Structures are given as C-alpha cells and as structure tokens.
Amino acid sequence: MLAYDQLKLYYGDLHNHCAVGYGHGSLDDAFQNARLQLDFAAVTVHAHWPDMPVEDVRLADLVDYHQQGFDKARAAWPAVLETVAAYYEPGRFVTFPAFEWHSRQSGDHNIYFNGDVGEIIRAADLQTMRQALRQWQSRGVDALLIPHHIGYKQGYRGINWQTFDTEFSPVVEIMSMHGASESSDAAFPYLHTMGPRDWHSTYQYGLAQGHVVGAIGSTDHHSAHPGSYGHGRLAVWAEDLSREAIWRAIKARQTYALTGDRIALTFSINGQPMGAVLEPVEERHIAVAVEGGNAIDYVEVLFNNRVIHRTDPIDATPTIDALPDGPFKIHFEVGWGEKGQNIDWHGQLAVVDGRLLDVEPRFRGHDVVAPQAHEEESYVFSRWAGEGENSVSFHTRTWGNPATTTSATQGIGLELIGDAQTLIRGQVNGQPFEVSLLDIVQGSKSAYLGQFLTPAYYFQRAVSRAEYIREIDFTHLANSLGRDWYYVRVRQLNGQWAWSSPIWIEAPTAD
Q1: Which end of the chain has fewer CB atoms at under 10 Å, N or C?
Q2: Fold classified for 10-260
Q3: What is the DSSP string of 326-357?
Q4: Got the DSSP string for 283-308?
C-alpha cells in the first residue's frame, strides 16, 4: 500500500511494571522479557497519586501500599535512567524512560521522555503536569502524556474527556489487562476491583466529542513481562527502529492497538495512512490490508463509530487428502495441568520436507498484581532460539490455568510452507512427537506428558493463507457537516483483536 511504502512495522509495549514501584521482578528482568518478542518498550514505574483516598479508613492498607511503591520509585529513578539507556540498541531494541501518575479526577496517565533524561514529576493536577512537561520541552526534551485504562468512570481513575488535550497526548491506551475501552460493547470487559467501564469514558465517546486522538494498547502487566501475550500491545508504522522514528510515529498517530498476535494492518483513505487528517472531500477511497496471526473472523470499517463494511469469514476446510494453498500459520501451546503447579518446559520444533518462514513467540508473564509472600529469584521464565533454517527450540514455564475461562498457557507461532508430505517433528520435555501438516490442517491435535490431569501440549489447527489474509477496497461517499472519522477493527477466530487509529476528514468550510 502506497501510504506505507516508506514505513516498517514494529511492535511494542509502553505500559507495564516491575518491582520499581509496587510490581514484581527487576527492571533487568522486564527488559530481558521485552526483547524476547518486542521491538520497543518502556517500563513505567509507579510514581505519584495526588488525590489518593487518604480520608477513607477502609483503604488505609491500599494507601500505605501505594506510598511505599512511590518512595521506592523515587529512590530508584537515577538507576532506572541508567538501565533504560543501557538497553537501548538502535536497530534492534528501543527503550524510553517512563513513570505513571494516578488521578481519580483526571484519570491515570503515563509520562514518557524522548531520551535518557527526565524526572518523576509529582504534579498536583493535570494542568500542573502539562506545565512541567512544557518546561522540559523548552530544554529540548520532548515528552508524552498518555491516558490509560480510560474506560473507568470519570472520578474513579477513568479519563475525563472534558479536560483531555492532545498537546502531549496524540494517542490513548484502549487495551490492557484491565480490558478494552473502545466502546460499551467491546470484547474484554473491565473486571478489576476498580469497577466496570462507563460509556462516557470510552474511546468512541471521545472520538464523538471531536478529539483527534489515536489508539494504542499495552499490557499494564505487573510482573516484569512487557508484551505478555493477550494483555495488550501496540504497533507503529515508522521509518526505522530508533527512538526518534518510533516517537515520530506515535506523535503522528501511525499506531494501532493489539491484544497479542502480531496482526499486520494497513489502512488508508485517498492514499493517506492511519492517523492522518484530510482536507474536506466527499469521495473517500478506502483501502485495508490485514495479515493475521491466525484465521481472521472478520474485518470491519467504521464510519463515525458505525460499521459500514464487514468482510465475511472464509471457509477453507480442506479435503481429506489435499491441502489448501499455503503458507500456513500454526500456534503451538504448552500448559494445563494442576493449578498453581510450576511446570518447566523444554522443547524443539523442526519442519521436515517443508520450510519454516517465521517464528512468533507468544509468551506470557506470571499474572501477579497484589503483594505476595514469596518473590521469585527471577521473573524471566522463557527463551527461544532458531536452530538452523527449519528448527526452533524454547524453554518456558506454566502454572496451570487459574480458572476455566483464563488461559496461562505459553505458545510459539510458526509460519511455514509445506505440502502433504510435510511433518513437524520434535520433542517436549524429552517426549518425542511427529505430526503431519495435512493432519493439523484438518483440526487440532493434543498430547499429554503423562496420564489424566497431567500437563499437555497442543497444536491448534493450521490455517492457510486464505484464512489469515484480508483486503478491502471501496469508495465511500459522504457529505457531512462536521468532521468525520474512520477506523478499522479486526477479530480473529482465536479471540485476538486489532484496532487502528482513525483517519479524519475535516468538515467543509462555509462558503
């Protein structure tokens, strides 16, 4: 797509936590985990809460817990800046220093600095925070102020769209472990003790109020695992993998929100990319291209928050003795077993009589938010490596699924080319296996390490190119009196999503 010809796609997480504050695991653990499956990351330290409910005796433990975390973050801040600088490798892995500022009235925000400098700003309110960031800007250090878990009711740490300003906030975070705040009906409802989402705090409501603001996701993971699979991530279309290019892409709203899979999404109107603001025009040529990480259920184009185009699912069920056209994408999972029981996994996957094109790690961190009696020596549980052209090895840990509706499995995504003779051969914890591509194109395949109620491993059904590729091309005619906006959302059959930043069309001027 022409609008993206000079850009490359990078994946990151700008909002997550470790023990610097009141999370778990070291800052080194966090950046090591981030480099497993991300191109860029910021580890946000919990820093300040000016309107903390100190007057409520019910919440005395919560107040003390937060204050101890804030004190820890302030003491560690110089070391945080040094670590962020040490992990920055242009062209390989990009880092930014960041901290989190809470507010019941204005909503929680994350603050980022474009460089190896910055300070924890203990602002009393949002206006004071913006004034402090202007001072940094006058010294040549740009900053971002990004609202997160925006969907909570205003006054309960959700966004206040009346006081929102795009000066330092080109994007808002609409997906994280808290849930999705795209709309009242979005998948991933808010289930945290902080409460449900409220329509007046959703992304769609903010767009309807006229705000020109893009969308991102991040995990808000609290155990040193940026990019923890399924919690939220962001993708940016940038010129290269450097701080300056990633920063420019975020400020230009060339971003989209993801849950987990590396869904590749391009979206343009009249040749302009997501995030653009176009001059008034009635004829809008819309082009969308999606490459999913798994089979796509549907792709939708929304106009002023209403769906105007939706693709149909593709039925690519193969015959019993023939394969559809490749390449194929396969998700391999390990886990299950008894809840709370640590299982360390060692494995290898090799493609035989075929070709391995790509590997996508899909690792999760241990989902621990509250204080715990025992801390792990290290929160780095996973690693992976390519072994030659056609093989990958991995090590990871699972803990059993905490509930029948909550997954804690670990996974590896494979993209490969093969035919009816292609095999995936390997071993898991010393147990050899062999599956044919033809077999898992028909459906999933599972195996166990032992007898009933022992840990298991699993090949999800292999999906063909026809199932994970979608393209949309149509012209929409509109003659609105106000500013219009369009965005795209993608749903996969495995429950992974993506939401693009919008493209806006300015209102026509009066003659």
Answers
A1: C
A2: TIM Barrel (3.20.20)
A3: S-EEEEEEEE-SSTT--EEEEEEEEEESSEEE
A4: EEEEEEEEE-SS-EEEEEEEETTEEE
